[in-house]
Amino acid sequence: NRSCMTYLARRSFAKVFDRTPEDMDMHLVYDVCHNIAKVERHEVDGVIKTLLVHRKGSTRAFPPHHPMIPVDYQFTGQPVLIGGTMGTCSYVLAGTDK
Description:
Layout lengths: L1 H16 L17 E10 L2 E10 L22 E4 L8 E4 L4
Antiparallel strand pairs: 1-2, 3-4
């Protein structure tokens, strides 16, 4: 669905402004699904455990220079998306060492 919505939004802008999405610099910045569940290792009560972590509409926050983030984000940290609701704000942040 996200791909279809992106395509249709870009096509609509192109039609209204009579320019290509590329001419308007409409590049996809970040794509993440709404429901994320991943197997991760975390310390719980002093013991490292393998857990299935579910982040409803949010993303993991790796700090700058973490080996698991792409090169594009190595100096800034991983983009962190915290989704809001109809009545609350959403936030775009970056992972830190803290």
